[in-house]
């Protein structure tokens, strides 16, 4: 089954577009691996019922060394056991042989999908997508990110008049053609930030089959109500990540449920009938 189909079924079954980001900030959680594990498991228990997926940010676990890796796999398995899609946010990208090794290391159970960096071109992405396709897993390639400095490079205008991020979008759409499932969604998705919603409509046109992973809602300032174009082709065409605004909220369950309700209504209104 294509990862796009897996994601579409999960969105429909859980009636949610919310991805809760597992970002255990050491300033709030500390450096003890067991404390990080307890924190993440608590987030999954509290917010998970309102979500469709979790997104462990690998940096917060890698910084703890070998014990951190164990925690990352443990909490990923717990999320999978809770019925959640697991999207590992590692943003890997390298020459083809190294990319293949990264894919083997990271795109394995309980991980369902991995974020990748296409900066080095198609041959740095294809080892990930080939490995993912063989195992019914997915990748999300960075296209137009949510950080404040994204426009420094991603919005640069090329000789043909396109911004750089549109060229990346075209590459992602091309690579993803082979893994479009029955749902109409590809196993190759795109990371598109909520902090620059003016690009969403054009990127949806360029990537009609790509599921969007949308970070930047909440603490980074992105607004859920601006994300309608992401759902213009498919009800499950986007999943929306929120990290700090959920995991450090006074009531993570309520924060996740409120975002779930907002996005579900938005997708219902924006998706084709």
- Radius of gyration, rounded? 17 Å
Order of helices and strands: HEHHEHHEHEHEHHEHEEHH
What is the name of the CATH architecture? Alpha-Beta Barrel
Q: Provide the CATH top-level class.
A: Alpha Beta
The number of helices is 12
Assigned CATH superfamily: Aldolase class I
Number of domains as seen in the coordinates: 1
CATH topology: TIM Barrel
Strand content: 15-25%
Terminal Cα span: 25 Å
Main-sheet strand order equals 1-2-3-4-5-6-7-8
Number of strands: 8
Q: Give the uncertain stretches in residue-range form.
A: none
Structural class of the helix and strand makeup?
alpha/beta
Query: Major sheet, described briefly?
Result: 8 strands, parallel, barrel
Mean pLDDT: 96
Using the alpha-carbon principal axes, give the shape. globular
Helix fraction by DSSP (H/I, runs of at least 4) = 40-55%
Describe this structure in words.
The chain is α/β, with parallel strands linked by helices. It has one domain: Aldolase class I (TIM Barrel), CATH 3.20.20. Helices cover 45% and strands 15% of the residues. It has an eight-stranded parallel β-barrel, surrounded by seven helices. The two termini are 25 Å apart.
């Amino acid at each position: 089954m294509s990862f796009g189909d897996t994601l579409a079924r999960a969105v429909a079954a859980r009636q949610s577009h919310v991805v809760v980001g597992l970002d255990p900030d050491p300033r709030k959680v500390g450096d003890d691996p067991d404390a990080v594990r307890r924190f993440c498991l608590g987030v999954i228990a509290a917010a998970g019922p309102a979500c469709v997926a979790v997104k462990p940010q690998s940096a917060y676990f890698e910084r703890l060394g070998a014990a951190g890796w164990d925690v990352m796999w443990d909490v990923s398995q717990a999320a999978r056991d809770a019925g959640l899609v697991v999207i590992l946010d590692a943003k890997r990208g390298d020459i083809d042989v190294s990319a293949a090794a990264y894919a083997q290391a990271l795109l394995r159970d309980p991980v369902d999908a991995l974020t990748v960096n296409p900066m080095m071109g198609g041959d740095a992405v294809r080892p990930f997508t080939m490995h993912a396709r063989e195992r019914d897993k997915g990748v999300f390639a960075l296209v137009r990110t949510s950080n404040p400095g994204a426009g420094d490079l991603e919005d640069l205008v090329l000789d043909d008049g396109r911004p750089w991020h549109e060229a990346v979008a075209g590459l992602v759409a091309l690579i993803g053609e082979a893994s479009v499932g029955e749902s109409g969604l590809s196993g190759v998705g795109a990371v598109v930030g909520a902090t620059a919603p003016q690009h969403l409509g054009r990127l949806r046109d360029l990537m009609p089959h790509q599921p969007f992973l949308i970070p930047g809602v909440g603490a980074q300032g992105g607004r859920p109500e601006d994300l309608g174009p992401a759902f213009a082709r498919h009800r499950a065409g986007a999943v929306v990540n929120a990290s700090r605004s959920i995991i450090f909220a006074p009531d993570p369950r309520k924060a996740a449920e409120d975002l779930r309700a907002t996005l579900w209504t938005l997708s219902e209104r924006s998706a084709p009938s």
